[in-house]
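Please check the following.

. . .
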Amino acid sequence: MQTKLKKYDVVICGAGLAGLTLARQLLMQLPNLKLLLIDRLKRPLPHAGFKVGESTVHPGGTYLCNVLQLREYLDINHIEKYGLRYFFGSHKLDFSSRAESGRSVYDAAINEHQIDRGIFENDMRQMVVDGGAELLEGAVLKDIELSKLEDDHVVHFKCNNSNNLQQVKARWVVDATGRRQFLSRKLGLRQEFESNCSATWLHVKGRFDVSDFVPADNRDWHERVSREHPFLSRDRFSRYNSTNHIMGYGYWIWVIPLVSGSTSVGIVTHNDYHSFSSRNTLDKTMWWLSQHDPLVADRLQECEVLDFKAIANYAYTSKQVYSIDRWACTGESAVFSDPFQSPGTDAIAIANCYIKELIHSDLESKLTPKLVESINREFIDYSRTLTEMIQSSYPTFYNETIGTISVMWYLAWAMSFVVPNMRFRIYKDGYITSYGAISKEEYKTIEEINQLGLLTSRFIRDWGIEKKQRPDRDGYQWMNLWHVPFFSEYRTRMLTQGSPQWAGNLKKLKHFAAAIFLVATEEIHPETFQKLPAQFVPNVNVLSINPSHWINDGLYDSDSDIDWESCMLIYSDLKKAFYSKTMVSQT
């Protein structure tokens, strides 16, 4: 006699960051669901050297703090973050002489933390169990038998090293198995990027602080970043709290503090500029660092290394992450873009909110192929654009001007599309269930935003490559980019919109792209710049660093969205910020 299988509304395969946050969201927003999580790991999970993906930025941080109501927990149990911080310049320079960009004052409106993944996932497992979910630890996933009809899926697994295969039924099944990508590989959905990057990382015991790279008696350097915080003492809030990026040609190094008392250090390189084989072991990584940033290498030599890991060609996307047949993927089971700018939790937040809305739509008999197709397109287009934008920027990282403008351009794109999409749609419980997918007209504008993001990122990349062949020109020494006037106004506009203003956001983005073109042209081709027509604004859809392409490409074709005065205001702000010796900080 066949045993009747236990049935769940949702089975989540994987209890890492993506699976646990989805479980908490479902328990909070759809509390009547019968929910099971299975994961091969058992508690207690190790602290520190457990997983990377420790840095959150505002969009994903808002998901954790507001949607999942974890702000108090994160403030108490993890490190409140002092934003993203960048150091540009030759390793031959004294560290205090490298150009620095980052926040200069505390901003209470920003939901960002440095998360020790071991502590977080231990605590989250208990939270979801207390919230009513079932959790099977030590359960190894063996198969997901998908149904294409109204029948339930069947999930096969083994528990506690047993040879006995167990099964449960699920109306919805979610793959949160991480880079194992169980469903994506089973269904042949994974897609690689032609150009890719690789990473190595380690955790070291104790405090590895970039502030210690500069002698304490250099008060100007130390005091240009305020350590004032409404609750934390000065010795607990400093540059150390930032996600620190040490930048170089085709690479960057991260330094992230963890509350468990260790520090995460990673080296990320573009394969076109640095071979993975040159640093795929700890010894090779230390040698590589000694060649590219001896100061970091020397300081690491003094530390106790807790672990070391390496991964080549880490970025990938997928043909599909959601199905009308009631399965979905989240986290690294869905896509993985690039760790630069810390977008990993953002992607988890978007994926989880979409999954919750699809399940909700199913409960209300509103789930349609059109809705699933639209949400698939939105998510995959977002992740692909993000990855290609970031990875095209690697050859700009050596230069403070071009590298920082590349960072600003990415943030402007995110504020034009990602942030309003989260604020006004994805983070609003039941929004998609009630109103459906973005309309065709709106999405056409979003596609233009994405396309402009890619095209201008490639132009900035070409600017960086061209500049590399020419003598360096002194740029800024210290900058809080959020206090560059036009950029501050841009951020305020995006955060105060009462609803998504896609067309207006695109128009603003075009003006920024046009100003970037003028700054780059003036630097690389000053004689050509002087010959440009009066009140000239370029066709931003065909930007090129090579003047011989301009006429045939249509650079001189006018765009009614761009007016010369607005373009020149941004151009002027960029010139003052990047080419004057005036420091752009809190004043």
Summary: Residues 433-579 form one domain.
